[in-house]
Amino acid sequence: MARLSEKSAATVRATLPAVGAAISEISERFYHRLFAAHPELLRDLFNRGNQADGTQRQALAAAIAHFATALVEHPEQRPDAMLARIAHKHASLGISPGQYEVVHTHLFAAIAEVLGDAVTEEVGAAWDEVYWLMANALIAIEQRLYAERGVLLGDTWRPWEVVERLRETEDVVTFRLRPADGRPLPDFGPGQYVSVRVELPDGARQIRQYSLSGAPGEATRQFSVKRVRGDAGDPAGEVSGHLHDHVAEGARVELSAPYGDVVLREEGAPLLLASAGIGCTPMLAMLHRLAGSGYEAPVAVVHGDRSPADHALAADHRALTGKLPRGSAHFWYQDPQGAAYGDRSGRVDLGDVPLPDGLQAYLCGPLPFLRAVRTQLLERGVPASAVHYEVFGPDLWLGRD
Predict the structure, then answer these.
(1) Distance between CA 234 and CA 168 in Å, rounded?
(2) Which of 100, 131, 210, 259 does the annotation list as catalytic?
(3) pTM for the full model?
(4) Is 142 noted as a catalytic residue in this protein?
(5) Residues 129, 142, 168, 238: which is the catalytic one?
(6) Which pLDDT tens digit goes with each residue over 244-266?
(7) How far apart, in whole angstroms, are the C-alpha atoms of residue 112 and residue 98?
(8) Which residues lie below 8 Å from residue 130, measured CB to CB, with a gap of 6+?
(9) Is 100 a catalytic residue?
């Protein structure tokens, strides 16, 4: 990866505190300008729920700050984990190189609005260099991802037919699908997701990502959808509600190819598969693969949920763990009524879960869970490089050591 020029690096280092302090306001102005000029992007590309509650703005701010900091503090290293995560998400949405020009126009107009006279020609040029280093790195990764999947720009979506719909819990439904165009199923790695695009009653075509939870190699693909009910502070989920209420067996939806950088690596190491809530879905795909291959190393399966009744796919979670020669299940429920023998009450606590040397940990769930479990792992001596995570929703950068 190309480095910042020495002149720009010095300017970015000097202005990073000011830009960092204003980045949230810059992000807000950016999205306001972008959607005013291109309302179709809010209607058909960006998650309207994340825009409404501000989480998308936080994610953009965190990504820019993280990348700029990496350029000036560690110029010899590329922040590959961050770039890969963003690129996979972008590819699942069908982002094209030309859209980076659109973002650049409105982002730099927002920077100028917020910082005013502080954005001298020299400052503007330095941050322009930061932007295009990040953008060109993402474009290169995204083009490679498209090529690997045989996806041409503008050909992101395929029609799929729902062949089975299963009620898992009061708020979770599993959909099993097959390609409606007769073409072969694309391969996927355990832990990956697909983007699902649906047309809502107001004509908007909204997109959400759902982890594939079935076994790689099956004749169908499946994902499970938790209804986002919303509350006083957060909007209800548009797409999850639509899928629950309007997509029955025989219906068609549009899916992308599988993407996602957090993929199980079967290297013979001891494993920890830790999840909370609907974060169990990618873990089930991993367990299908491990059970099918007869994985012989220890596998600790950890899950936390509100109650046994809220634990989606719980029977599969237990059964697949039981098929592993050295698998162990550790489930925690805040309300343990109806729990099986050996299950625990409260929140996930790894205190008595064996963590052998050489452990590789895979985590999935909401940010508070990820932060708590990651902290416990680091305190137990698991290196940060061995902790791989997937967060549901915008990634706000829970930190890497």
Answers:
(1) 24
(2) 100
(3) 0.93
(4) yes
(5) 142
(6) 999 999 999 999 999 999 999 98
(7) 22
(8) 4, 8, 12, 67, 68, 71
(9) yes
